[in-house]
Write a structure and sequence with these properties.
This protein has 13 helices and 13 strands. With 439 residues, the protein is of the alpha/beta class. The longest helix is centred in the last third of the chain and has 21 residues. The protein is globular. The chain binds pyridoxal-5'-phosphate. GO terms for molecular function: kynureninase activity; pyridoxal phosphate binding.
Length: 439
């Protein structure tokens, strides 16, 4: 049985030599096998050290003081620096994005503003296999408004025996429940299957029924090209610790379309302000008067006005270097490589064996490059996962698993090479066949 690849190492190295993004790999620390086993840390990060220095030599004045040689802004303006770098990554105006909170907290903040149920129209459409946190957040919002989640959660499941959902199917569910639906929450890329949804079409369809729609972009941001502003998306939230590399629990992102972020003076002469209702806190308030400590909330226009508490300057220090890397290229360039390298990985994984033996796994992710990002979800034959994971760990491969039988492999274009993919296939395929032969 031939399970090694006909696609040669030389060919992978040639593809790497032609890759215009290859130099970015040098900006990353790829854990070695020894690192993964190491009990000690040895490489402190520069940006975090700088934050500590700001704090050490300025204390609370660090909110306002800029240093000539600093790569970080003063604490007060870290949020704006992050928004500026986030905007091109998600296809938004700077005012439409904010670096804040965690993804789940941001979903709650967005629902507090955009989910405004009435007795007749109080349902939320989401997908049946939504990331659990999204499911819990929606469930609790519905209860918070006094409705019954069993009745009010409309779950979209794939049609037929497919792992993925067609756009037509999603649109038909929206049509069916539109009259009683107050809000839609969907993932840009489905975390389990890696399916990229047609955000523009689904958003337009939701709007044709006057339903606000929110996108969970955890797996889409930094992975695929997004045009949140032009697609007229109402609101979105994402974390920065997947393709954006900012580290576990890193500060998250929030998008509110400019049409929803306006702050205007009331025309009735009352001196009051008109703005979208929200759960407010002082960090969403106008910077010019924030430290005057007045009792009246005057929100900053745009997504920044949805901030609540003081944004962690330490968290921003961890985020900015991650975003700067993306701003030195473009999502168009990243996506170009992503499509190529993901296809290459798929070719390696699906290469037939010499003797026609069936593969002990299949790929759940759509094979159409337009309907996926960099992730391939590989579903192993039942019972093989533990053996395969053990072997991968021994070989120093860092991989994500979803029990009982799926691994998610993502050639992140900003730092993964074609050679990485080639090596992965050389390790993974024999392991899968070996596990199969034992089962
Ligand atoms: C699709 C999706 N939604 C929500 C979350 C929760 O994110 P957080 O823990 O930042 O709230 C995650 C985390 O992995 C996720 O993948």
């Amino acid at each position: 049985m031939t399970i090694t690849s006909n696609l040669s190492l030389k060919q992978a190295q040639q593809l790497d030599a032609e890759d215009p993004l290859r130099h970015f790999r040098d900006e990353f620390i790829i854990p070695t096998k020894a690192d993964l086993k190491s009990k000690t840390l040895s490489r402190p990060g520069k940006s975090i050290q700088e934050f500590l220095q700001q704090w050490a030599i300025k204390g609370v004045y660090g909110h306002f003081v800029d240093h000539d040689d600093a790569i970080l802004p003063s604490f007060l303006h870290g949020d704006d620096a992050a928004a500026k770098l986030l905007a091109p990554i998600v296809g938004a105006n700077v005012q439409e994005v904010s670096a804040m909170e965690t993804l789940t907290a941001n979903l709650h903040l967005l629902m507090a503003s955009f989910y405004q149920p009435t007795k007749e129209k109080h349902k939320i459409i989401l997908e049946g296999k939504a990331f659990p946190s999204d499911h819990y957040a929606v469930y609790s919002q519905i209860r918070h408004h006094g409705f019954d989640p069993d009745d009010a959660m409309i779950l979209i499941t794939p049609n037929g025996d497919k792992a993925t959902m067609t756009t037509e199917h999603i649109l038909s569910i929206i049509d069916k429940h539109a009259a009683e639906t107050a809000f839609i929450l969907l993932p840009g890329i489905q975390y389990y299957t890696g399916q990229l949804l047609d955000i523009a079409t689904i958003t337009a369809h939701a709007h044709s029924h006057n339903i606000p729609i929110c996108w969970d972009l955890a797996h889409a941001v930094g992975n695929v090209e997004l045009s949140l502003h032009n697609w007229n998306v109402d609101c979105a939230a994402w974390c920065t610790y997947k393709y954006l590399n900012a580290g576990p629990g890193a500060i998250a992102g929030l998008f509110v379309h400019e049409k929803h972020g306006t702050v205007t003076e009331a025309t009735d002469g009352s001196g009051g302000l008109l703005y979208r209702p929200r759960l407010s806190g002082w960090w969403g308030g106008d910077k010019g008067v924030r430290f005057e400590m007045g009792p009246h909330f005057k929100p900053r226009p745009g997504a920044a006005g949805f901030q609540v508490g003081n944004t962690s300057a330490l968290a921003i220090a961890g985020l900015l270097p991650a975003l700067k890397i993306f701003n030195r290229t473009s999502m168009a360039e990243i996506r170009k490589k992503s499509m190529r390298i993901t296809q290459y990985l798929q070719d390696l994984l699906l290469e037939p064996t010499g003797d026609g033996q069936p593969l002990p796994y299949k790929i759940l992710t759509p094979s159409d490059p337009e309907a996926r990002g960099a992730q391939l979800s590989v579903k192993l034959d039942m019972g093989l996962l533990d053996h395969v994971l053990e072997g991968l760990e021994d070989a120093g491969v860092v991989i994500d698993e979803r029990k009982p039988d799926v691994i998610r492999v993502a050639p992140a274009p900003i730092y993964n090479s074609y050679e990485d993919c080639w090596k992965f296939a050389q390790i993974f395929r024999p392991l899968a066949f070996k596990a199969k032969s034992r089962s």
